[in-house]
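Researcher: Structure for this, please.
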Amino acid sequence: MFTETTAPSRVAFLPKRFADVVDYLLIPRSVMIRNYRPDDVPKMLSVIKAAFAEQKGIVNPPSSAERKTLEILSFELEAGEALVFEIDTRIIGCVCYREKDESIYFDRLAVLPAFRRRGIGKRLIREIENRAGDRGFQTITLSVRIELEAQQEYYQRLGYRIDSYKSHEGFEDPTYLIMKKSLIKRRRPS
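Model: Predicted structure, C-alpha cell format:
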C-alpha cells in the first residue's frame, strides 16, 4: 500500500527560525527591485525598524527610525521616492531617495538583518545611481552617523567619499557626515 508523505526539510536538524531562513534562501525565488506603492509603507516601516534597531544605544542623538510611524514615513515619501527589494512578494529591503541640492540624496537604506551580506543593499544603491544618472544628476549623497564606522567603510567601498561633517541640532561636535559619489564617468587614458 502506497502512502504519500511530505519530504522533510533539507535543514530539519537546525533550529526552526534559522531553518526557515536557510530553506527560504535555498529555494529559487522571484527577486525584484521596484518602486514602492502606498500599500507597501507598513512593510517598509517594519523593515526600517528592524534594520535600525541595532543602532539603539549606539548613536547619539537616537536615530529618528526609533520614532518613525506610518504617518511620518508616508509624509516623507510625499517629497520623494522609494524602492523596495522583494523576494517573492516579501519586502526584504528598502531605500528612500529624493532630489536635494542638485543631487539625489538617499536615506533609510534598510535590509532585514537575516538577509544582510547578500548584496541587497548594494543592488538598491546601484538602482538609485542608475536612475539618478538617467535623469541627468551628476552626484549622489547620503548621510551616515559618526559612530557607524562599518557603514562608512561600506559606502567607501561603493565609491562614496566623505564630503563634510555635520551636527544635529543642539550638538556642537559633528554627529554625522555627508558622503558623496560622482556619477560622471571618467575617461581612461589611451
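Researcher: Any notable elements?
Model: Strands lie at 31-35, 81-87, 90-100, 103-111, 139-145, 161-166, 176-182. The helical segments are 16-26, 41-52, 70-78, 120-134, 149-157.
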